[in-house]
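Predict structure. Chain length: 749.
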Amino acid sequence: MKKSKGIIYLILVAIVIGLLGYTSIVGFGNDSRGAAKNIKLGLDLEGGVSITYETVAKAPSATDMSDTIYKLQQRVDQYSTEATVNQEGDNRITIEIPGVTDANVILEELGNPGTLYFVSEKGSDGTANYQADASAENGYSLTKTIDELQEDGSLLLSGTDVSSAAAKTQTDSTTQKKQYVVSLSFTNDGTQKFADATTDAYQAGESIAIYYDGNLISVPSVNAAITDGQAIIESAGMTYEEAETLASQIRIGGLNLELNELRSNVVGAQLGQAAIVSSIKAGVIGLGIVCLFMIWVYLLPGLAASLALIIYTGLMLVSLNAFDLTLTLPGIAGIILGIGMAVDANVIIFARVREELTAGKTVKTALKAGFHKALSAILDGNITTLIAAAVLYWLGTGSVKGFAITLGMGILLSMFTALFVTRIIIYSMYAVGIHSTKVYGRSKQVREPIGFLAKGKWFFGISIVVVAAGFIVMGVNQANGTSMLNYSLEFEGGTSTNVTFDKNYTIEEAEKKIVPVIKDVTGVKSVQVQPVQDSNAIIFKTTTMDNDQRTSFDEAMVSKLDVDSSKITYENISSTVSSEMRSDAVLAVIVATICMLIYIFLRFKDIRFAGSAVIALIHDVLVVLAFYAVARVSVGNTFIACMLTLVGYSINATIVIFDRIREELGAKKRSEDLESIVNRSITRTLTRSIYTTFTTFIMVAVLYIMGVTSIREFALPLMVGFICGGYSSVCITGALWYVMKTKLVSKKR
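Prediction complete.
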């Protein structure tokens, strides 16, 4: 690279940093487009709409309620991946959608869930069931009531017979023009019903109308008998918005239960403005410490990495805006892990550069070799984690999907900044005349290999004891009448108490003045505060309270806070982390682990690499689980995000060491034994392991120090997980692979 070109690139980097900084802080236009303040925040950070439905059936079955909640969760994901659906009492369902403030719009779009029917054109007596009606919204109206159609047998299918509906694009076979349609898929029972219905309608030359929420929303013609359970609804001139609306109406009408709206309101954030401000400050401070650390350790390359890290942060903020993503605490975990991956990639590169300089290479040669030799480790580690993110997004719901989006985006941006931006900056600095080896890293003598494998039995023993202790503590907790883990109301459900005060309290005021009173008189350990917008009401969510606790609650509110007892209402609520969501998360992790195992096997051509990586990953998860049990840290919504973050971090750390072992095996001398190679590989990546663990730990540690209680409950297990991941990658994975390689190798005849 020429000097003039290097100067131009450095100027462009400065301009990019300036533009990203201006965009993130100020934004553009009257509405400050792109500014960080415009990022959509989740219900825990910003608040949103809360809607409560009641089932028409007085005593719905648990199966129907569970199925309806699960399907509603999938429906409201269109508004936000962080939307939650939970059960209240026996026949009520509450939907909480963050980042939106107009309940009426949501209600209008959701309509009346559970009232979808497919109606035959004529009844059994030959009279028309519907007719053309210019005054009707879609040009048709019923001539009979739903009850009459039901008695007549004219309701051919209901919403429960539809498995999916989506707006799609296809090419018109006649005009060859693009047109928008709605694609329908039916259940097994629905496929047979629809086959019978379309066969009869096609033979009679009749149509089949779709009824939803009091109106006929579509009256498509039947052009053939459809027997495979797949149908297309076409309409001349249908726009994509119209197709999406029709598909959405069909989806929301496909619930097992019919629901009526009971109430809706706009609720405030669960954490409060102070928590958000402190988290932002913690992020800035943590990022600053990481940048200073990188500069101190790697000098000029560290400065280049810091500039790239700042660009990464700016791109992440702009991307959250551009893709209209909702940010919550689990999302913040994905961003933190992305920062850790970005730092890790730079550490791998600069460690390689230092090795080349120590071997006597010139700066230019060392830079070229460093980037080249680090490429495979960076790609393998990031692609493995990216596979996990893709599977989590594909199979996960709610906060799992939100975490997967930010994690995947963070990985892509971290690879871009490490492999492209850092490279441009460092080569530009060299091009402008900075050639001294002193500023490219402190050249040191090659470190003698440490005998990690000789201590392998000790490491295995320590891990077994820690994991076993976790299971023992969980068993003791269960035997003592407490739960194995300290489950929060998100996992176990609890009591939602709505209290209207004579004044308006902020979240911070409520946590300081009211929450201590509640804990004192009821004995509950965890209280979530959620204000209702434009009122003096506050919703307090706790673990389930019995009658005595409710009485104590009422008396305390009346005597200590002058509350009118008639303005205190209670409702039992189900867990927001439903059994389906938990099973989805577990399934997603299992499938992700299998996919990562397959990728590692294909890349390393040795199943022992994949097997030891997965065992080490399971080890890390179990150690953190043991910490949850011993420390009695609350297990809530962020528990899943914490475990998923650990999976991504742990597998990446392991891949780096395996990549070095593979490289060393390729250059192995005949006289050299396998133990020496593994020890040397771990030793040469030890600096990277320590530095990466330190930088990711610092980011979360600052968040823990400056955060409020709920953020600390999220950050503390992450800190333990990062330390454990660093320990297992250095002390466990290499030793595991060595044991498998030497003990499971096939004997030659």
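Summary: The chain is about 60% helix and 15% strand.
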